[in-house]
Every structure is written in C-alpha cells, then in structure tokens.
Amino acid sequence: MTTAPPLAPRAGIGLKSEHFAEIAARRPDLGFFEIHTENAMGKGGPYHAWLAEIRQDHPLSLHGVGMSLGGAEPPDPGHLARTRALVERYQPALVSEHVALCGHGATYLNDLLPLPYTEESLRRLIAHIQRMQEALGRPILIENPSTYLRFAESTLDEPDFLVAAAEAAGCGLLIDVNNVAVSATNHGFDASAWLDRIPPHLVGEIHLAGHSRKVIDGTVIAIDDHGSPVADPTWALFQHALDRFGPRPTLIEWDANLPPLDTLLAEAALAERHLAALAPDAERIAS
Amino acid sequence: MTAFPPAGFPLAGFVANALGPGPTPELIAAITGNGLRPEQRLSIHRNATRIGLSEALAAHYPAIQRLVGEEFFAALAGRFIEAHPPRTPVLAEWGGELGDFLADFPPAAGLPYLPDVARLEWAINEVLHEADATPLDTDTLGGTLGNLAPGVLPRVRLAVHPAHRTLASPWPVARIVAANRGEGWAERWIEDDSATISLDEGPDHLLILRPEMDVAVLPVGAPGLALIQALAAGMPLGAALAEASPDNADPARLLGRLLGSRVIVGVSL
C-alpha cells in the first residue's frame, strides 16, 4: 500500500453545514474539503444533497472521530460498514482516523482519550488499523492526538509509537501541527524536536487549528478547541514541518465559534502561501 | 491474544470520570501529574464529554432549550447524559430518549407538554437524516388509482415515504415548536401566527414529513394519522381505510387528503 499523498499539496478547510449554500454558490478555489465521517452517516436528506453537490467540484477527505482505534475492542463492524459505504459513495482522496480511545464498552464518550504508549497498546492499535484498512480496501492516515495527561506505565515516546504503528500497519500519518503544539505545552516537550522524529515519507496530510489556554493552579494548559485562528507559534511550527516533510495537503480546522466562510478561506490562503514558498523538493533535499 | 487493556489498566475509569461522580482511584493512580493533580488533568476530559454532548443535545432540541432556558437545559442535559450516554459515535442518532426522560423528570413536571415537544423535535431530526424518496404527486397517484379495475382498489398497497414520522399529542405541540424553534420554522407551518398559544388548542395529530429537502409538520387529524400508520405497517388500502375510519364516515375525503400530502412514494398490488 502506498502512503504517497494522493492529493495536490494545497490547503483545504473543514466543510461545515452552515457554509454549504455559500460554498455551492461560490465554488471557492481550495485544494479539498474535509468532513467528520460520522456527520455523513445519515441515510439521506440535505446533508448528503449538499455534500454530493460540493463533491462534484472538490476533492474530499473523510476524517473519522469515532472508530476508537486505540480501544480495547476491535473496530465496530457496523461502523466500519457505514464508513466503507461513504468511501464508496464519495470516493474521498484521503481517509483518516485518530489515535485515540473514544469510550469503553458500549459507551461512547464523544472524546478522544489518550492511549498508554506501551508495546501492548501498540500491538492492539496496529491490529485495529489493519482491520479498518481491510474493511475499506485502502490505506488510511492516523492522526497524532492532543493530550492532557500521560500514563505512568507508558514506555514509548509518542513519535516512536506513531511511527512504529504506521510502519507496521502500512498506513500514513496525519500530522496535526496544532496538536503537537498543544501537547508540547501540556507536557513540556520541544514541538520542533517532536516533528524531527517523523519520517517525511509517512506524512500524508497536515492539520492546522487554533487552541485556547487556561491556567490551572499556575500551570498553563492548552485546550485543543478549534475555535480561533491558527496561532503565530503554530504557523512557525507549520513552517518547520513543511521544511522537513515537504509540501503536503493542509487542512484548516475550525469547529467551535464558527466564523464566516471568508475567515476560513483567508486562513487557507495563508497556509497556501507557506506551501507555495517552499523550495522545490530537489533543492530542499540538497540544501 | 494479548490482553488489552493491560491487567489493571483502568479504562472504565474514564467512563466514571466523564459520566459519574469522578475518576476512580485506579485511574488517578495510573496518571502522572507533571505539575498538576491527575484529577485536574482528568477534568479536561470530563468537560470535553459533557460540553460536547450538551451542545449536540441542544442542536437536536432548540425549542426545548428555548422553553426551559439555558440554565435549566444545561442541568437537564447533564442528567440526561448520565442516564443515556451515547452508544454510537453518530451523534445525529443519539438523544431520542429525551421525551421519555422529560416525562419522568420532576423538575419539568410543571410543563406537561415538554415530553411531546421533545418527541416532535426528535421526529424532525430523524426525518432530516432518513432515506430520500420521490413522492408521487396528486395527479399521478390519482390517475394510477383511477385506472385500476373495479374491486382492485382495496387490495392496493401504498408505500409510505421513509422520511416520515407520526405523533399524536393532547397538546398543540406543532405551534409550540414552531414558535420556539427559530430559523423560519414558524412561517413554514403556521398560518395563524397569533402571539399566544392556548394549551387547550390541542390535541395535535401530526405527520412529520420530508418529501424532498425541507421538513413539514402537517396536521392530519386522528383518522389521517391512523391511515398513514396502517399503510406504513403494510396494510392494503381497504383495510387501512377501515382501520382509520371504523364508522366508514368519509373514506373518500380521507383518501383525497392522503393523496395530496406527498407521503406516498409507490403503488403496488
């Protein structure tokens, strides 16, 4: 299976139902749109009507939030089947999922909970990615999480854990640069050094988003709430990622306090300026 | 197969952390605080679950939220989330028990119409995401039925649109929802938009239907409701009309109203 980016390395935005009509009318010049897979799991109705119309003009990325690849149980067969049906219907350029636990037993917590980074959870994650890829008949990308806590029993560093999972499962990585920044703040590590441990050939997509900060007992905690512009230090980290990985399809995520479409398009245009300013591959590797 | 989570790994503690009184001692012990107490780090996850699910519930039930106010709704959502946490990551399909939950929620006892308001909003949510189908227009349907050989009509089966639900309520819930749902709902359904709604305007017998992309809430009367329910259950037309109108008062009028409602998508024998 290949992990080469099947999309042009341009910027895209999250597709929100509030913007459907405006996007269908304006057909903005974007590299792609991304949706949360679970939001498209209804049988019919206006969501699918708009999505089908917008899909005619733009590539699509399906980004799942509920497969719980890090969970105790294998991916739910029903959820896999519904995801496969969407893949067949909309032929997305990318399919991605989070490295996370989404609940336990039958309970879905609507959260992306962190995994312990142990050999056991690595083996289980690899098996679950493989199960998903077999069900879809195509490789996926797995996304690094934003985390707020660590487990005492973890024995692997996060980049090593993710790279080992991707190499063993034959999937790619979706590097969420904002998540790296958030986790670096919350655990006190060097975000650039984290990125430097990711082999460029594994990276199929980049995510950018805003986060907020709150102070708990004098300690700054970054909250990955996707409710504000991409912060300046995150743009700098994005540039570092591009210098290392080369140009990659890059998504602007904005889910809370949704702004007008033009605000998202301006963020995407800024990302495209970073992408366009990169030296061609040969020069960059030689330098 | 290797056991996962590892023996003793307190995965279930996350459920207690998010939905119960707080994290289990086992989960707290498994987390490195790194400058904070583990409970403080876990509180971020508790908030993520509860805020995200409250917002999803409010998106399903805007009229309920407006009727009870944001503060009451937040408390209601918190109790509901604990009692009925999602069993699916598809949040459009979560929250349908709110009507029944409200019926047994003492703080809401003074607003006896709330459970049916919630049931109507849930029906609207469900038909929005149901399968699409093309309704037969009145002329096509009337022509098809009119061309049948004598005696065949009672044996005909009419396929009911998948994007439909029915609701009977002793309260005027259609007007209550229309007046409180915002975004043009009132103009879409309500001809009489006088400012006050009298609770003795009920009962309502409602067809919630999405013939194409827009949801309509249509008063169809008790016989109309019974007819649609009988057809949806697979009864042939003759038996369905008898079921809906046992005294056989005016089956022609009942059938005429049905033909105009855009709820029929197919005819078969």
UniProtKB/TrEMBL annotation, chain A:
This is UPF0276 protein SAMN05421742_1085. The lineage of its organism: Bacteria, Pseudomonadati, Pseudomonadota, Alphaproteobacteria, Rhodospirillales. InterPro entries: MbnB/TglH/ChrH, Xyl_isomerase-like_sf. Belongs to the UPF0276 family.
UniProtKB/TrEMBL annotation, chain B:
It comes from the Bacteria. It comes from Roseospirillum parvum. Residues 27-102 form the Putative DNA-binding domain. Pfam families: DUF2063. This is Putative DNA-binding domain-containing protein.
